[in-house]
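dude i think i finally got it to work??
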Amino acid sequence: MPPTVTGTALVEIIAGVLEDLHERQLMVTSDNLREAIELVAPAIDPVPRLIAPGLSVISEVKRSSWV
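look at this
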């Protein structure tokens, strides 16, 4: 049997993520989430804007925080 890893930063991060997930699942039901998704406008295709002459973009996209 492989040794059990405890107390590492990764274990703590995963535990926190699972706790956050559980709290979020309690706040929003699957049906409410589906309804909200139906109301969201479709994504805009960025490619035509990115390949347009005279445009240069450097960006970073990060996950938003619920806090």
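Residues 13-51 form one domain.
im so relieved honestly
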